[in-house]
Amino acid sequence: MDMSIWQPIVDRLDRLRAAGRRADFWLRDDDAVAPTGALDRLVELADRFSVPITLAVIPAHTSGELSHYLASRDDISIAVHGWTHQNHAPPAEKRQELGGHRPREVVLDELDKGYSRLSALHPSSFVPLLVPPWNRIDPGLLAGLPDIGFTALSVFGAERSSSNPDGAKTMKTGSIASAFPRPGLSLVNTHVDVMDWHGTRGCRDHLEIIHDIVRRLDEMNLDEETVGILTHHLVHDESVWQFLSRLFELTAVHPACRWRRGGDLTAR
């Protein structure tokens, strides 16, 4: 592996240290339901560098087995990843579980069940954070989330409005920022995805991921925003594991980087 490609991240962090500043990073890993070898590997890797994990768990498919596996850990936060992670959009649309294709009351009731189930299974590590499957949610649902107990929402993309909204019916990436700030609900996004979903479905080119991290460091508001890294442990190839190992190695000990727990972010 060419270690020189990592120098831009080190340079940015060194500049922050010289200025007396610090960037918050966080790791969101999606689609957890049960203990697996892949989850073991993620947990062991994060442990090695003391990096906390926020697991987005699918409530309808999980059980006490995962709860028992994580019971003694205080460095893993549990977020609500929809209800069943089932697509309800027609073939011509992007996949959505929390879209506008079903009655609002039905979707909110499922999210309420998911919130109750995970908070009961993981009483000490549960955080009131909703992670919509496929990072998509209908805007009409947002007002009902605080009534369930959610205090934060996490999708993929910038927290501030962009000039290229994804569309009126579904809020994703920059477009969701137009609905914030809003009472009782904060936006805690991920910004860098390690997976090449539209190509190899393995790890993206390491240099491209590094460029995304550097761009986020250059653009973010250090006082209010984070660098959110998005992973999916169940589908990682060896290149993903290598990337994460090197990223954690470089950042976890750097005084200008702080890896945050999910609860730290929802409490802000």
Automatic annotation (TrEMBL):
Native source species: Sinorhizobium mexicanum
UniProt key word Lyase: no
GO biological process: carbohydrate metabolic process
SUPFAM superfamilies xrefs: Glycoside hydrolase/deacetylase
Transmembrane regions: none
Keywords annotated in UniProt: Plasmid
InterPro entries assigned to the protein according to its UniProt record, in alphabetical order: CE4_u4-like (IPR049591), Glyco_hydro/deAcase_b/a-brl (IPR011330)
Protein name (database record): Polysaccharide deacetylase
Top-level taxonomic group: Bacteria
Matching CDD domains: CE4_u4
